[in-house]
Fold this protein.
Amino acid sequence: MKFLLVEDNQELAHAVASRMRMDGHVFDHAENISEAIGFSDTSDYDLILLDIMLPDGDGRHFLEHHRARKKDTPVIVLTARSQVSDRISLLDLGADDYVTKPFDHAELEARCRAVLRRKKGSAQPVVSMGNLSFDPVAGQVFIQGAPVKLRNRELRLLELLINAPNQIFSKQKLFDRLFAYDDDVSENAIEVYIGRLRKHLDPSDVTISTHRGLGYRLEHG
């Protein structure tokens, strides 16, 4: 999944991003509201982690801007404010959850998983197509009940495709979702990962079709 972290504390930002990347997530990092708006207006994210005390203002302004644009990306607020009134105001503005600083990284990860499950509308997030099953939270893939080992970015690619069956994804769209803003790779990397994922899916009745000039689509049968 692709996350946006809005946090001006470099040490904390590095710790959070490093922990999440270990689980295969892609991270963009904004240090202030202006950068955060730039990221969110030009890219799609599965989850946003938002600090409140930022150099150019209150993170609430970003949250208001984000919701005003009718974006439903889940937002978890990272805040040092522990008063009930502060937490209530954040939830009323559109935050999906909050974590009070200092926090345990395991708790943050658990809250991220819970918010993402709620967005999917199910406590059982397993997605199936044909004889292929995928659990994005656990990062597990099965073909006819047998486990298939995928690398992190291959998992993220499958997640994108299987969550939008029969939708054609352009190279640019896949690139935007699989790589962070500062990753030093070209769009051709998408062809490499598509090729790798196809090999893993060979035993299944699911295929990735190429639509020349348009992109790729996951299909059953």
Summary: The chain has a mean pLDDT of 88. The helical segments are 10-22, 33-42, 59-68, 84-93, 105-120, 152-162, 171-178, 189-201.
